[in-house]
Structure formats: C-alpha cells, structure tokens
Write a structure and sequence with these properties.
With about 90 residues, this protein is mainly alpha-helical. Helix content is about 60%, strand content about 0%. This is DUF4834 family protein.
C-alpha cells in the first residue's frame, strides 16, 4: 500500500512540475535574454563612448609600444681561456 501511494504521489508531482515548467520557463528565459541584451547594449555604448573620446585626427601617428634595447652580448675574446673538450674512454 505504501509503495502504491508513493508512486501515485511521485507521478502527480512530476506532472505538476512539467505543467508549471511549461508555464514559467518561457517567462524566465525571456527575462534572462532581455537582461543579457541590456548588458550587451551597455557594454556597446561604453565601448563607443570610450573610443570616440580617444580617437586622433586623421594623419597623425602615435607609437604605443617601444621595444627595449637589445642586450649586449659579451665578447668571446675577452671571456678568458677556453680548453678543448675531449672524450676520455
């Protein structure tokens, strides 16, 4: 008797959840999509506002990155005495 009662209640709960999901999930998805669209529109506006303020007149040149000077390599003539390597067997 307990198993039958459990199965009936479980099936009823599953059907009720399915019906509620069909009613409420479309509203939740629409709300989530509209939030994402609003966020993307805000980001687009911020990007456009930031870019228009920093644009330079046409024909000007600016360098944003200057590479560091190359490191000097030590001269081998002044490094000292070198001994040839031999394999000892």
């Amino acid at each position: 008797m307990g198993l039958l009662r459990f199965l009936i209640i479980a099936i009823a709960v599953i059907y009720i959840l399915r019906i509620l999901a069909r009613i409420f999930l479309p509203f939740l998805f629409k709300k989530a999509v509209s939030k994402m669209q609003d966020k993307m529109n805000e980001q687009q506006q911020a990007y456009q506002n930031g870019h228009t303020a920093t644009e330079k007149p046409q024909g000007t040149i600016s360098v944003d990155f200057v590479p560091p000077p190359p490191k000097k390599k030590p001269k081998l003539d002044q490094a000292g005495d070198f001994v040839d390597y031999e394999d000892v067997k």
